[in-house]
């Protein structure tokens, strides 16, 4: 990627010179007199890395002009712009502002991780192509991460020069007056949000609040207290299903109590953040105009109902000094209405297809709408992320951002059917987004994976992520299929059942081939541990556990199809059920290392349903 060491994102300009600077065992990191306390925090990150990587203790000094590593601000450089020079006399990092200093330090940390105390002489200039580079993580529909894991996520974002983070909240915050909504969950608390906000600021990251306020209000609109505010009149009267939660539960926009309730939630949540932005989401309002507002929709149009409510929400934010953000899927049908929203409102233009087109980005640009492009890490509804899909999607969206002068990129990590995939599997996609938004594009998929394998996972063979990418493509009856069959393949809907089975029957033909390839990938991943140090080898385990789960569900898919279409089963169904339950026990142990209890029980319900289903087939 341009030099013998890996740097992510790649710098705009880099020259490797002859010679090396050998870090002395005792030295100093010097920060300029003009810098704030934030610069001290950035210097401390470097100080701690030098200790961790080398065991050298470096002090932090200010204004002595005798530092081993010299930091300074050069205001003629642009925001987040930095220069990094290494000669045989010392190391010099100049930033156009304090964030520029941070990014120079993060580059040095990447070099230190690979080169140790022997730093090659070099000259580097670097700056981002997009000013806003964010990551959006679902902490609602399945997993509520531990605070420690969220801090680790912030560390990773900062290391790869991202500057924004959002957490998707529907019901997983402990709102004071909404205990019925979160009582069976493990919600984040106000103090934790404030602590995370401060932690992010120390690492150059703006933690932006994000809250569902329109669609996707399943738990709020299923409470006995507030179900009357749902657009549809049957809220709270159906058993839970993952698909139903995703498809319905839009708020009644004509009821003033709806707006009052949502304002109350925003007013409680907003002050916990130092950010001047607020994401109201407002996406996928599938039911709008189909229930309580059917008559209004027929007379005024669904677009008028949508804009009326969104204008009120955005106006409330503007009155409180916040810049509104919202997802752009609904408004894409009437982008000209965006000029009715408060000045500065940002449209979050999402699209997750492998071959995503530029159409939505172009349409918003032609209508003068401020936008971020929002690709995804392709992990939802499956045990292991589809890395190549993620790479292609992110590459395209960031290219469109550059072409149509979008203001930023927000890379998304959704939970959907319980957030089955381990969150660490989204790190490669996170890094693709970091690199693409900084540079406007990416090296090849294989080159990018080699760099990430080496720098992020400490795999000197550079093969880990290409293996993981192959592994993720071996599902033929995955988690999404399993949930879909359980919830839609019921005997009560015979026509739907036949449709689901026909689709599954085509996929399960490849089970022997897919499971053999899973075994090959598992062996190759185990082989990678030879090229990793002891601190990194444990990162292989989640992949091995996911691989076993993929094999199990592939087998189960074959059993389901045979049982339902041919009325025969050749496998030992009791053994398959027992293997599934044992796998789930290990899955739970891993879950609790990074996540609270949250909705783990819902995943368990699916697992146990299949175990019981298998045992009930004994007579076939």
From TrEMBL:
Keywords: Glycosidase, Hydrolase. Residues 133-375 form the Glycoside hydrolase family 20 catalytic domain. This is beta-N-acetylhexosaminidase. It comes from Kineothrix sedimenti. It catalyses: Hydrolysis of terminal non-reducing N-acetyl-D-hexosamine residues in N-acetyl-beta-D-hexosaminides. It comes from the Bacteria. Its EC number is 3.2.1.52. The keyword Hydrolase applies. Belongs to the glycosyl hydrolase 20 family. InterPro entries: Beta_hexosaminidase_sua/sub, GH, Glyco_hydro_20_cat, Hex-like_dom2, HEX_bac_N. The keyword Hydrolase applies. Pfam families: Glyco_hydro_20, Glyco_hydro_20b. SUPFAM superfamilies: (Trans)glycosidases (SSF51445), beta-N-acetylhexosaminidase-like domain (SSF55545). Residues 5-127 form the Beta-hexosaminidase bacterial type N-terminal domain.
């Amino acid at each position: 990627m341009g030099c013998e060491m890996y740097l992510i994102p790649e710098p705009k300009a880099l020259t490797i010179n002859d010679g090396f600077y050998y870090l002395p065992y005792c030295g100093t990191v010097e920060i300029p007199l003009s810098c704030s306390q934030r610069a001290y925090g950035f210097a401390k990150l470097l100080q701690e890395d030098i200790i961790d990587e080398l065991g050298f203790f470096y002090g932090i000094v200010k204004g002595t002009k005798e530092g081993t590593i010299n930091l300074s601000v050069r205001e003629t450089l642009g925001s987040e712009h930095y220069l990094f020079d290494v000669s045989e006399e010392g190391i010099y990092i100049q930033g156009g502002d304090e964030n520029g200093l941070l990014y120079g330090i993060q580059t040095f940390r990447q070099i230190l991780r690979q080169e140790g105390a022997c730093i090659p002489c070099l000259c580097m200039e670097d700056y981002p192509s997009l000013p806003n580079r964010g990551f959006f993580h679902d902490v609602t529909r399945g997993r509520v991460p531990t605070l420690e894991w969220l801090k680790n996520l912030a560390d990773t974002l900062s290391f790869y020069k991202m500057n924004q983070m959002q957490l998707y909240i529907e019901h997983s915050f402990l709102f004071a007056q909404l205990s019925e909504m979160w009582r069976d969950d493990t919600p984040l608390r106000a103090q934790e949000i404030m602590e995370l906000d401060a932690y992010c600021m120390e690492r150059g990251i703006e933690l932006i609040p994000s809250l569902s306020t329109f669609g996707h209000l399943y738990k709020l609109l299923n409470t006995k207290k507030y179900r009357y505010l749902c657009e549809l009149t049957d809220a709270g009267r159906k058993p839970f299903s993952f698909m139903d939660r995703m498809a319905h539960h839009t708020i009644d926009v004509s009821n003033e109590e709806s707006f009052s309730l949502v304002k109350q939630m925003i007013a409680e949540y907003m002050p916990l953040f130092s950010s001047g932005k607020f994401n109201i989401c407002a996406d996928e309002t599938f039911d709008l105009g189909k229930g309580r507002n059917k008559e209004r929709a027929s007379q005024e149009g669904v677009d008028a109902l949508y804009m009326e409510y969104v204008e009120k929400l955005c106006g409330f934010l503007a009155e409180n000094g916040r810049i509104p953000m919202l997802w752009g899927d609904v408004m894409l049908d009437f982008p000209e209405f965006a000029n009715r929203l408060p000045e500065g409102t940002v449209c979050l233009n999402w699209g997750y297809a492998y071959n995503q087109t530029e159409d939505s980005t172009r349409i918003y640009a032609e209508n003068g709408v401020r936008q971020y492009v929002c690709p995804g890490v392709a992990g939802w509804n499956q045990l292991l992320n589809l890395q190549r899909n993620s790479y292609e999607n992110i590459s395209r969206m960031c290219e469109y951002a550059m072409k149509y002068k979008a203001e930023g990129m927000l890379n998304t990590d959704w939970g959907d059917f319980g957030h089955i995939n381990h969150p660490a599997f989204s790190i490669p996609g996170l890094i693709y987004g970091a690199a693409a938004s900084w540079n406007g594009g990416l090296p090849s998929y294989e080159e990018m994976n080699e760099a990430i394998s080496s720098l992020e996972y400490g795999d000197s063979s550079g093969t880990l992520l290409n293996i993981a990418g192959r592994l993720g493509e071996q599902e033929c009856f995955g988690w999404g299929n399993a949930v879909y069959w359980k919830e839609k393949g019921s005997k009560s809907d015979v026509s739907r059942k036949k449709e689901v089975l026909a689709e599954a029957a085509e996929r399960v033909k490849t089970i022997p081939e897919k499971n053999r390839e899973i075994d090959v990938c598992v062996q190759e991943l185990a082989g990678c541990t030879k090229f990793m140090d002891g601190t990194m080898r444990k990162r292989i385990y989640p992949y091995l556990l996911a691989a076993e789960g993929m094999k199990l569900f592939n087998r189960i898919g074959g059993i389901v199809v045979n049982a339902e279409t041919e009325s025969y089963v050749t496998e030992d169904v009791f053994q398959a059920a027992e293997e599934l339950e044992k796998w789930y026990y290990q899955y739970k142990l891993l879950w609790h290392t990074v996540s609270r209890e949250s909705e783990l029980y819902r995943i368990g319900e699916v697992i146990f349903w299949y175990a019981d289903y298998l045992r009930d087939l004994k007579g076939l």
